[in-house]
Specification:
By secondary structure, this protein is of the alpha+beta class. It is built from eleven helices and 18 strands. A hairpin with a 2-residue loop joins β9 and β10.
């Protein structure tokens, strides 16, 4: 690969007739969901016809194609029935799928990813420990009384340690755990939301605004699929020592064992996180990450109609991403991309090396044809220490994006002695004058 260089997200007793009437009504209501039970009378006659049969693979494929067509196209990549979608390759940042990825949407419990990020951040900084205790307030307990409110079964007034609360948030999506953490870390959920927004700004999540720690519906609260993918990538990169919690398949607390709502942890090879979500406003959503053979994909979906639909579409798109794209290594870690001139060093040049591998994502069958430029300010004055940041490798990809990677000194270059510096200076000015 050619390289150029240049410098520079009751009543128990009722009349018998009432019982019969109630049973008849119940049978009527359930008629659409199951075969009606005979309550002393025949069910309404059905039109003659063949009993329903499972769809053949060809029919199922046709039905899926019709749903995809009705859902509308993606701006990048394959169609999806999700209202919002975004998929990236975590190593290269290449966008494989985008559908209204920068439009605001309800985060639901995927907002808890930011709550967990702040928890991990304070743990890594030593401000919290896994055995730090937080109290369960009236507010934290009351949120579990809501309809369809996820809970880790915390008791009012008890204390719970951070290690359990992390699992309560990630594995079982506990709203009670989220509020307990917010109040324990910031004094109030409102103050914690301010921290969430500040961190979102720092991470570049420009399309997101948080109002609480759980994702409970609130006016003014929204995220984008793009931002959630960015948040997932930062979580994986910044806290590898804690990310393992996202792969945990079940959690037991206060005598209750609950499974992780991320069904793909059991069904899709390589999936090791992150978070599901659901609200009436936003529908069903999920942020998912999967790694295979060292390559990681991050997928965000939202606006689906059911748990089953969410699981099926997540699995389908993860498989599509791995199948239809691949990564090519352009530069190996430690490879020299250029040599920079040195001023007053015992060597005239210093090798510029990439500390990490530089990869490029391409569609399967597409040739990798990037343009790489090494940039640095030079001559570089000695002394130079091996590993010092000296420049960047600017990689222009076929889609027109340019990505910069750091370049470091590949060797130590000591400074010349007094006499050597004098001679080098004299030679420089002399030769410069003669030229």
């Amino acid at each position: 690969m050619p390289v150029s260089w240049r410098i520079n997200r009751s009543f128990w007793l009722l009349p018998l007739l009432a019982l019969i009437g109630f049973a008849a009504i119940a049978a009527d209501v359930g008629a659409q969901q199951q075969a009606p039970r005979h309550q002393g009378q025949k069910p309404p006659a059905k039109p003659a016809g063949k009993p329903s049969q499972p769809l053949t693979p060809k029919q199922a494929a046709a039905a899926q194609a019709a749903k995809l067509e009705a859902a509308g196209p993606s701006q990048i990549g394959t169609p999806t029935i999700a209202r919002f979608a975004y998929m990236i390759d975590a190593q290269t940042g290449t966008v494989l799928l985008a559908k209204d990825a920068d439009k605001p949407m309800a985060p639901s419990s995927m907002a808890k990813m930011m709550t967990v990020y702040l928890l991990f951040d304070d743990l890594a900084a030593g401000k919290l420990k896994l055995d730090t205790q937080f109290r369960v307030s009236d507010r934290a307990y009351a949120i579990t009384r809501g309809v369809h409110s996820s809970t880790m079964f915390l008791e009012l007034g008890q204390t719970a340690n951070v290690g359990d609360l992390i699992q309560g948030i990630i594995v079982v999506s506990g709203n009670d755990a989220s509020v307990a953490v917010a109040e324990g870390m910031a004094g109030s959920e409102e103050a914690f939301a301010e921290r969430m927004n500040k961190k979102a700004h720092e991470l570049g999540m420009t399309g997101s605004a948080f109002r609480n720690s759980s994702g409970w519906p609130a006016e003014g609260q929204h995220v984008t699929a793009h931002d959630l993918a960015m948040l997932a990538a930062h979580t994986i990169k910044d806290f590898p020592q804690y990310y393992k919690y996202y792969a945990q398949r079940e959690f037991s607390y206060n005598g209750k064992t609950q499974p992780n709502r991320n069904l793909e942890l059991k069904t899709v090879p390589g999936v090791d996180g992150l978070k599901t979500g659901h609200t009436e406003e936003g529908g069903f959503g999920q942020t998912t990450s999967a790694i295979r053979d060292g390559r990681r994909l991050i997928l965000v979906l939202n606006g689906l109609n059911s748990i089953a639909e969410r699981a099926q579409e997540t699995a389908r798109l993860i498989e599509w991403g791995f199948r239809e794209s691949s990564n090519t290594t352009l530069v190996r870690a430690g490879d020299t991309l250029a040599e920079a001139p040195v001023w007053l060093g015992v060597q005239d040049k210093v090798p510029l090396v990439s500390p990490t591998a530089i990869q490029m994502t391409t569609v399967v069958g597409q040739a990798a044809q990037p343009h790489v430029v090494a940039k640095f300010d030079g001559p570089i004055p000695a002394p130079i220490t091996k590993g010092a940041r000296l420049g960047t490798a600017s990689v222009t990809l076929p889609d027109g994006r340019t990505v910069d990677y750091p370049l470091e000194a590949g060797a130590d270059v000591p400074k010349l002695g007094v006499v050597g510096r004098m001679w080098a200076a004299a030679r420089h000015y002399l030769l410069g004058w003669l030229s």
